[in-house]
Design brief:
There is one protein chain. Strands 4-1-3-2-5 form a 5-stranded mixed beta sheet, with helices on one face. It is built from 2 helices and 5 strands, in the order βαββαββ. The protein has a single domain, classed as Alpha-Beta Plaits (2-Layer Sandwich), CATH 3.30.70.100. It is α+β, with helices and mostly antiparallel strands and 89 residues long.
């Protein structure tokens, strides 16, 4: 199963980006996690089909209503052992 690692920058903390990402990923049937980083970015890893990941990526660029995404760095990620999509703290 393909997995990808995302580093999202912009106004993405304090705008419900993590929880919205979790809800979107769960709705798409993805596994993985999302968390805030100390430098103001949001980091996520998601695993699923290519179609599921493409839909998540389209959503990540938009984000929730108050977010303003400037950039997303996307890299391939080795598969992780996860059965659900969680928020990490």
């Amino acid at each position: 199963m393909p997995c990808k690692h995302y580093l999202i920058s912009g106004r993405v903390q304090g705008v419900f980006y993590r929880s919205s990402t979790q809800q979107t990923a769960q709705r798409l049937g993805l596994s993985g996690w999302v968390r805030n980083m100390r430098d103001g970015r949001v980091e996520a890893v998601a695993c699923g089909s290519d179609a599921q990941l493409a839909r998540l990526e389209a959503w990540l660029y938009q984000g929730p209503p108050m977010a303003a995404v400037d950039n997303i760095e996307i890299t391939a990620q080795s598969e992780i052992a996860a059965s659900e999509f969680i928020i990490r703290y």
